Amino acid sequence: MDNDTDIRPFRIDIPQADLDHLNDRLARTRWPDELPGVGWSYGTPSSYLKGLAEYWRTSYDWREHEAKLNAFPQFTTTIDGQNIHFLHVRSPEPNALPLILTHGWPGSIVEFLEVIGPLTDPRSHGGDPADAFHVVVPSMPGFGFSGPTHETGWDLSRIARAWAQLMQRLGYERYGAQGTDSGSVISPLLGRFDTDHVVGVHVNGSLGFPSGDPAEFARMTEAEQARLGALQQEMDESSAYAILQSTRPQTVGVGLSDSPAGQLAWIVEKFKEWTDPANELPEDAVDRDALLTDVSVYWLTGTATSSARLYREGRASWGQQTVRSEVPSGVAVFPGDFGIRTIAERDDNVVHWSEFDRGGHFPAMEVPDLLVGDVRTFFRGLR
Q1: If you placed Cys at 275, which of 38, 227, 256, 360 could pair as Cys (CB 3.0 to 4.6 Å)?
Q2: Could you read off the pLDDT of 310-336 as tens digits, one per residue?
Q3: By C-alpha distance, which of 311, 358, 368, 319 is closest to 336?
Q4: 350-367: per-residue pLDDT in tens?
Q5: Is position 197 annotated as part of the catalytic site?
Q6: Is 175 a catalytic residue?
Q7: Catalytic site includes residue 311
Q8: Which of 21-30, 121-130, 232-241 has the lowest mean pLDDT?
Q9: Which among 121, 131, 155, 181 is annotated as catalytic?
Protein backbone atom coordinates (compact mmCIF):
# COMPACT_ATOMS: atom_id res chain seq x y z
CA MET A 1 0.00 0.00 0.00
CA ASP A 2 1.22 3.52 -0.87
CA ASN A 3 2.38 5.71 1.96
CA ASP A 4 0.23 8.84 2.26
CA THR A 5 3.21 11.06 1.48
CA ASP A 6 4.25 9.17 -1.65
CA ILE A 7 4.44 11.07 -4.94
CA ARG A 8 3.17 8.80 -7.69
CA PRO A 9 3.70 9.30 -11.46
CA PHE A 10 0.41 9.88 -13.30
CA ARG A 11 -0.63 9.70 -16.92
CA ILE A 12 -4.01 10.67 -18.38
CA ASP A 13 -5.63 7.77 -20.22
CA ILE A 14 -9.36 8.23 -20.75
CA PRO A 15 -11.07 4.96 -21.79
CA GLN A 16 -12.33 5.01 -25.38
CA ALA A 17 -15.75 3.94 -24.10
CA ASP A 18 -15.98 7.26 -22.22
CA LEU A 19 -15.24 9.23 -25.39
CA ASP A 20 -17.78 7.19 -27.37
CA HIS A 21 -20.35 7.83 -24.64
CA LEU A 22 -19.65 11.56 -24.77
CA ASN A 23 -20.16 11.67 -28.53
CA ASP A 24 -23.36 9.64 -28.24
CA ARG A 25 -24.73 11.96 -25.56
CA LEU A 26 -23.90 15.03 -27.64
CA ALA A 27 -25.65 13.53 -30.66
CA ARG A 28 -28.81 12.95 -28.60
CA THR A 29 -28.97 16.38 -26.93
CA ARG A 30 -32.49 17.70 -26.41
CA TRP A 31 -32.03 21.37 -27.25
CA PRO A 32 -34.17 24.08 -25.65
CA ASP A 33 -35.92 26.76 -27.67
CA GLU A 34 -34.70 30.34 -27.60
CA LEU A 35 -36.23 33.76 -28.12
CA PRO A 36 -35.35 35.71 -31.26
CA GLY A 37 -32.97 38.65 -31.01
CA VAL A 38 -31.88 38.29 -27.37
CA GLY A 39 -28.31 37.14 -28.11
CA TRP A 40 -26.41 36.16 -24.96
CA SER A 41 -28.54 38.29 -22.62
CA TYR A 42 -30.61 35.27 -21.52
CA GLY A 43 -27.59 32.97 -21.25
CA THR A 44 -25.78 30.79 -23.77
CA PRO A 45 -27.84 30.72 -27.00
CA SER A 46 -28.75 27.28 -28.31
CA SER A 47 -28.15 28.50 -31.86
CA TYR A 48 -24.51 29.18 -30.99
CA LEU A 49 -24.07 26.15 -28.76
CA LYS A 50 -25.34 23.64 -31.34
CA GLY A 51 -22.46 24.46 -33.66
CA LEU A 52 -19.87 24.26 -30.87
CA ALA A 53 -21.29 20.95 -29.59
CA GLU A 54 -21.24 19.51 -33.11
CA TYR A 55 -17.61 20.53 -33.48
CA TRP A 56 -16.85 18.92 -30.11
CA ARG A 57 -18.58 15.71 -31.28
CA THR A 58 -17.21 15.41 -34.82
CA SER A 59 -13.99 17.43 -35.17
CA TYR A 60 -12.37 17.94 -31.78
CA ASP A 61 -9.75 15.27 -31.02
CA TRP A 62 -9.42 14.55 -27.29
CA ARG A 63 -6.50 12.16 -27.91
CA GLU A 64 -4.46 14.96 -29.48
CA HIS A 65 -4.93 17.17 -26.43
CA GLU A 66 -4.54 14.31 -23.98
CA ALA A 67 -1.10 13.75 -25.55
CA LYS A 68 -0.27 17.47 -25.12
CA LEU A 69 -1.15 17.24 -21.43
CA ASN A 70 0.83 14.01 -21.06
CA ALA A 71 3.89 15.73 -22.55
CA PHE A 72 4.27 17.36 -19.12
CA PRO A 73 5.36 15.28 -16.10
CA GLN A 74 2.34 14.63 -13.89
CA PHE A 75 1.97 13.16 -10.44
CA THR A 76 -0.53 12.49 -7.67
CA THR A 77 -0.10 12.56 -3.92
CA THR A 78 -2.39 12.47 -0.90
CA ILE A 79 -2.63 15.58 1.27
CA ASP A 80 -5.04 15.92 4.19
CA GLY A 81 -6.81 12.76 3.00
CA GLN A 82 -7.42 14.15 -0.50
CA ASN A 83 -5.94 13.01 -3.80
CA ILE A 84 -3.99 15.89 -5.39
CA HIS A 85 -2.99 15.77 -9.06
CA PHE A 86 -0.35 18.16 -10.35
CA LEU A 87 2.01 18.95 -13.19
CA HIS A 88 5.61 19.38 -12.06
CA VAL A 89 7.91 20.78 -14.73
CA ARG A 90 11.46 21.47 -13.63
CA SER A 91 13.49 24.09 -15.43
CA PRO A 92 16.79 23.21 -17.12
CA GLU A 93 18.22 26.28 -15.34
CA PRO A 94 19.78 25.23 -12.01
CA ASN A 95 18.92 28.48 -10.20
CA ALA A 96 15.25 28.54 -11.23
CA LEU A 97 12.72 29.75 -8.65
CA PRO A 98 9.89 27.30 -7.81
CA LEU A 99 6.45 28.71 -8.69
CA ILE A 100 3.02 27.23 -7.96
CA LEU A 101 0.23 28.24 -10.36
CA THR A 102 -3.40 27.97 -9.18
CA HIS A 103 -6.45 27.98 -11.44
CA GLY A 104 -10.06 28.63 -10.47
CA TRP A 105 -13.54 27.72 -11.72
CA PRO A 106 -14.30 27.05 -14.57
CA GLY A 107 -10.60 26.66 -15.25
CA SER A 108 -8.20 23.75 -14.89
CA ILE A 109 -4.57 22.85 -15.50
CA VAL A 110 -5.43 23.34 -19.21
CA GLU A 111 -5.35 27.10 -18.62
CA PHE A 112 -1.59 27.13 -18.08
CA LEU A 113 -0.33 24.95 -20.94
CA GLU A 114 0.91 27.88 -23.04
CA VAL A 115 2.89 29.52 -20.22
CA ILE A 116 4.73 26.48 -18.83
CA GLY A 117 7.38 26.45 -21.56
CA PRO A 118 8.25 30.17 -21.38
CA LEU A 119 8.28 30.10 -17.57
CA THR A 120 10.45 27.00 -17.19
CA ASP A 121 12.77 27.52 -20.15
CA PRO A 122 13.00 31.22 -21.05
CA ARG A 123 16.27 30.60 -22.89
CA SER A 124 14.34 28.60 -25.54
CA HIS A 125 11.54 31.20 -25.72
CA GLY A 126 13.50 34.38 -26.32
CA GLY A 127 13.82 35.27 -22.62
CA ASP A 128 16.53 35.64 -20.03
CA PRO A 129 17.55 32.33 -18.38
CA ALA A 130 17.82 34.23 -15.09
CA ASP A 131 14.00 34.47 -15.13
CA ALA A 132 13.45 30.68 -15.08
CA PHE A 133 10.97 28.89 -12.81
CA HIS A 134 10.37 25.31 -11.72
CA VAL A 135 6.60 25.15 -12.26
CA VAL A 136 4.01 23.26 -10.19
CA VAL A 137 0.41 23.30 -11.47
CA PRO A 138 -2.04 21.43 -9.22
CA SER A 139 -5.62 20.49 -10.04
CA MET A 140 -7.63 21.94 -7.16
CA PRO A 141 -9.36 19.43 -4.84
CA GLY A 142 -12.66 18.50 -6.46
CA PHE A 143 -11.43 19.51 -9.92
CA GLY A 144 -10.31 17.36 -12.83
CA PHE A 145 -7.74 14.69 -12.11
CA SER A 146 -7.62 15.47 -8.39
CA GLY A 147 -11.05 13.86 -8.55
CA PRO A 148 -14.01 14.61 -6.33
CA THR A 149 -13.68 15.66 -2.73
CA HIS A 150 -15.10 13.18 -0.22
CA GLU A 151 -15.86 15.39 2.77
CA THR A 152 -16.99 18.90 3.58
CA GLY A 153 -14.54 21.64 4.49
CA TRP A 154 -12.42 21.96 1.35
CA ASP A 155 -12.54 25.75 1.24
CA LEU A 156 -9.90 28.12 -0.14
CA SER A 157 -7.94 28.26 3.12
CA ARG A 158 -7.68 24.49 3.32
CA ILE A 159 -6.48 24.36 -0.29
CA ALA A 160 -3.82 26.99 0.46
CA ARG A 161 -2.60 24.92 3.41
CA ALA A 162 -2.50 21.84 1.18
CA TRP A 163 -0.37 23.76 -1.35
CA ALA A 164 2.11 24.63 1.42
CA GLN A 165 2.37 20.90 2.19
CA LEU A 166 2.76 20.07 -1.50
CA MET A 167 5.64 22.49 -1.98
CA GLN A 168 7.30 21.20 1.20
CA ARG A 169 6.88 17.63 -0.03
CA LEU A 170 8.57 18.58 -3.30
CA GLY A 171 11.51 19.92 -1.31
CA TYR A 172 11.06 23.60 -2.15
CA GLU A 173 12.25 25.91 0.64
CA ARG A 174 11.69 29.20 -1.22
CA TYR A 175 8.97 29.61 -3.81
CA GLY A 176 6.53 32.00 -5.44
CA ALA A 177 2.78 31.72 -5.96
CA GLN A 178 0.66 32.90 -8.89
CA GLY A 179 -3.09 32.63 -9.18
CA THR A 180 -6.11 33.43 -11.29
CA ASP A 181 -9.82 33.48 -10.31
CA SER A 182 -10.05 31.38 -7.10
CA GLY A 183 -6.29 31.11 -7.36
CA SER A 184 -6.08 34.89 -6.86
CA VAL A 185 -7.51 34.26 -3.38
CA ILE A 186 -5.67 30.99 -2.64
CA SER A 187 -2.24 32.37 -3.59
CA PRO A 188 -2.36 35.33 -1.12
CA LEU A 189 -3.65 32.92 1.56
CA LEU A 190 -0.69 30.68 0.83
CA GLY A 191 1.57 33.68 1.37
CA ARG A 192 -0.09 34.27 4.74
CA PHE A 193 0.09 30.64 5.87
CA ASP A 194 3.62 29.91 4.64
CA THR A 195 5.28 33.29 5.10
CA ASP A 196 8.70 31.82 5.83
CA HIS A 197 8.84 30.11 2.44
CA VAL A 198 6.75 32.23 0.00
CA VAL A 199 8.97 34.95 -1.49
CA GLY A 200 6.16 36.68 -3.41
CA VAL A 201 2.57 36.39 -4.60
CA HIS A 202 1.40 37.44 -8.08
CA VAL A 203 -2.26 37.44 -9.07
CA ASN A 204 -4.32 38.59 -11.98
CA GLY A 205 -7.60 40.21 -11.08
CA SER A 206 -8.70 41.03 -7.59
CA LEU A 207 -6.86 41.25 -4.29
CA GLY A 208 -9.40 41.85 -1.54
CA PHE A 209 -13.01 43.03 -1.23
CA PRO A 210 -14.41 46.45 -0.37
CA SER A 211 -15.01 46.89 3.36
CA GLY A 212 -18.06 49.14 2.97
CA ASP A 213 -16.27 51.92 4.87
CA PRO A 214 -17.17 55.29 3.24
CA ALA A 215 -13.65 56.54 3.95
CA GLU A 216 -12.23 53.67 1.90
CA PHE A 217 -14.53 54.53 -0.99
CA ALA A 218 -13.53 58.20 -0.72
CA ARG A 219 -9.85 57.26 -1.09
CA MET A 220 -10.49 55.53 -4.40
CA THR A 221 -9.72 57.26 -7.66
CA GLU A 222 -12.57 57.94 -10.10
CA ALA A 223 -11.36 55.02 -12.22
CA GLU A 224 -11.40 52.72 -9.18
CA GLN A 225 -14.88 53.86 -8.22
CA ALA A 226 -16.04 53.13 -11.77
CA ARG A 227 -14.45 49.68 -11.57
CA LEU A 228 -16.22 49.05 -8.27
CA GLY A 229 -19.51 50.07 -9.89
CA ALA A 230 -18.85 47.65 -12.75
CA LEU A 231 -18.13 44.92 -10.21
CA GLN A 232 -21.46 45.62 -8.49
CA GLN A 233 -23.25 45.44 -11.84
CA GLU A 234 -21.51 42.16 -12.58
CA MET A 235 -22.64 40.78 -9.21
CA ASP A 236 -26.23 41.85 -9.91
CA GLU A 237 -26.36 40.61 -13.50
CA SER A 238 -24.04 37.62 -13.75
CA SER A 239 -23.66 35.95 -10.37
CA ALA A 240 -26.50 33.43 -10.65
CA TYR A 241 -24.00 30.62 -11.26
CA ALA A 242 -22.16 31.50 -8.02
CA ILE A 243 -25.36 31.70 -6.00
CA LEU A 244 -26.46 28.28 -7.28
CA GLN A 245 -23.04 26.68 -6.73
CA SER A 246 -22.72 28.22 -3.26
CA THR A 247 -26.17 27.08 -2.11
CA ARG A 248 -27.30 24.03 -4.13
CA PRO A 249 -24.28 22.51 -5.90
CA GLN A 250 -25.76 19.02 -5.68
CA THR A 251 -28.93 20.06 -7.50
CA VAL A 252 -27.28 21.92 -10.36
CA GLY A 253 -24.64 19.19 -10.48
CA VAL A 254 -27.18 16.61 -11.59
CA GLY A 255 -27.79 18.47 -14.84
CA LEU A 256 -24.11 19.29 -15.37
CA SER A 257 -23.00 15.71 -14.70
CA ASP A 258 -25.68 14.18 -16.91
CA SER A 259 -25.58 16.47 -19.96
CA PRO A 260 -22.37 17.34 -21.80
CA ALA A 261 -24.26 20.09 -23.65
CA GLY A 262 -25.35 21.45 -20.26
CA GLN A 263 -21.77 21.36 -18.98
CA LEU A 264 -20.62 23.08 -22.18
CA ALA A 265 -23.23 25.85 -21.87
CA TRP A 266 -22.43 26.41 -18.19
CA ILE A 267 -18.70 26.91 -18.81
CA VAL A 268 -18.81 28.63 -22.20
CA GLU A 269 -21.08 31.35 -20.78
CA LYS A 270 -18.27 32.34 -18.39
CA PHE A 271 -15.69 32.36 -21.17
CA LYS A 272 -18.01 34.66 -23.12
CA GLU A 273 -18.53 37.01 -20.15
CA TRP A 274 -15.04 37.01 -18.65
CA THR A 275 -12.67 37.05 -21.61
CA ASP A 276 -11.49 40.27 -23.27
CA PRO A 277 -14.64 42.40 -23.80
CA ALA A 278 -13.31 43.38 -27.23
CA ASN A 279 -14.07 39.86 -28.51
CA GLU A 280 -17.52 38.89 -29.69
CA LEU A 281 -17.32 35.13 -29.10
CA PRO A 282 -15.37 32.97 -26.63
CA GLU A 283 -13.29 31.36 -29.39
CA ASP A 284 -12.22 34.84 -30.54
CA ALA A 285 -10.47 35.21 -27.16
CA VAL A 286 -9.19 31.68 -26.51
CA ASP A 287 -8.37 28.80 -28.82
CA ARG A 288 -11.53 26.76 -29.44
CA ASP A 289 -9.77 23.44 -28.91
CA ALA A 290 -8.23 24.67 -25.64
CA LEU A 291 -11.69 25.74 -24.46
CA LEU A 292 -13.12 22.31 -25.31
CA THR A 293 -10.19 20.57 -23.60
CA ASP A 294 -11.03 22.48 -20.43
CA VAL A 295 -14.71 21.48 -20.69
CA SER A 296 -13.73 17.90 -21.53
CA VAL A 297 -11.65 17.65 -18.36
CA TYR A 298 -14.71 18.52 -16.27
CA TRP A 299 -16.90 16.07 -18.21
CA LEU A 300 -14.50 13.13 -18.45
CA THR A 301 -13.53 13.28 -14.76
CA GLY A 302 -17.14 13.73 -13.58
CA THR A 303 -16.19 16.71 -11.40
CA ALA A 304 -18.93 19.23 -12.25
CA THR A 305 -20.56 18.79 -8.84
CA SER A 306 -17.43 18.54 -6.71
CA SER A 307 -15.92 21.62 -8.34
CA ALA A 308 -19.15 23.54 -7.74
CA ARG A 309 -18.93 22.58 -4.05
CA LEU A 310 -15.92 24.90 -3.73
CA TYR A 311 -18.42 27.78 -3.72
CA ARG A 312 -20.57 26.12 -1.06
CA GLU A 313 -17.55 25.50 1.15
CA GLY A 314 -16.17 28.99 0.75
CA ARG A 315 -19.21 31.23 0.90
CA ALA A 316 -18.86 31.92 4.65
CA SER A 317 -15.62 33.76 3.97
CA TRP A 318 -16.83 35.87 1.02
CA GLY A 319 -16.11 39.53 1.62
CA GLN A 320 -14.52 38.92 5.01
CA GLN A 321 -11.68 41.20 6.06
CA THR A 322 -8.32 39.51 6.19
CA VAL A 323 -5.17 40.01 8.23
CA ARG A 324 -2.70 42.18 6.35
CA SER A 325 0.16 40.32 4.68
CA GLU A 326 3.65 41.76 4.28
CA VAL A 327 4.66 39.21 1.63
CA PRO A 328 5.53 41.18 -1.54
CA SER A 329 2.54 41.12 -3.88
CA GLY A 330 2.10 41.87 -7.56
CA VAL A 331 -1.15 42.40 -9.44
CA ALA A 332 -1.86 42.27 -13.19
CA VAL A 333 -5.23 43.73 -14.17
CA PHE A 334 -6.65 42.72 -17.54
CA PRO A 335 -9.76 44.18 -19.26
CA GLY A 336 -13.00 43.18 -17.55
CA ASP A 337 -11.34 42.25 -14.25
CA PHE A 338 -11.76 44.30 -11.10
CA GLY A 339 -8.43 44.87 -9.42
CA ILE A 340 -8.70 47.98 -7.21
CA ARG A 341 -5.36 49.16 -5.90
CA THR A 342 -6.76 51.02 -2.88
CA ILE A 343 -8.31 47.78 -1.61
CA ALA A 344 -5.32 45.63 -2.56
CA GLU A 345 -2.91 47.89 -0.67
CA ARG A 346 -5.12 47.76 2.42
CA ASP A 347 -4.59 44.01 2.82
CA ASP A 348 -1.35 43.24 1.00
CA ASN A 349 2.16 44.60 0.51
CA VAL A 350 1.65 45.58 -3.14
CA VAL A 351 5.02 46.31 -4.72
CA HIS A 352 4.03 45.79 -8.36
CA TRP A 353 0.88 46.83 -10.26
CA SER A 354 0.26 46.46 -14.00
CA GLU A 355 -2.79 47.27 -16.12
CA PHE A 356 -3.16 45.89 -19.64
CA ASP A 357 -5.39 46.91 -22.54
CA ARG A 358 -5.85 43.42 -23.97
CA GLY A 359 -6.64 40.06 -22.45
CA GLY A 360 -9.24 39.16 -19.86
CA HIS A 361 -9.96 36.84 -16.94
CA PHE A 362 -8.02 33.91 -18.46
CA PRO A 363 -4.74 35.64 -19.42
CA ALA A 364 -2.69 32.43 -19.50
CA MET A 365 -4.95 31.34 -22.38
CA GLU A 366 -5.74 34.75 -23.91
CA VAL A 367 -2.46 36.67 -23.69
CA PRO A 368 0.19 34.26 -22.38
CA ASP A 369 2.97 36.60 -23.52
CA LEU A 370 1.70 39.45 -21.32
CA LEU A 371 1.17 37.24 -18.28
CA VAL A 372 4.59 35.58 -18.58
CA GLY A 373 6.26 38.98 -18.96
CA ASP A 374 4.53 40.38 -15.90
CA VAL A 375 5.31 37.33 -13.75
CA ARG A 376 8.97 37.50 -14.79
CA THR A 377 9.16 41.22 -14.02
CA PHE A 378 7.53 40.87 -10.59
CA PHE A 379 9.69 38.00 -9.36
CA ARG A 380 12.94 39.40 -10.80
CA GLY A 381 13.56 41.43 -7.66
CA LEU A 382 12.56 38.65 -5.26
CA ARG A 383 14.92 35.85 -6.28
Answers
A1: 360
A2: 999 988 776 677 889 999 999 999 998
A3: 358
A4: 999 999 999 999 999 999
A5: no
A6: no
A7: yes
A8: 232-241
A9: 181
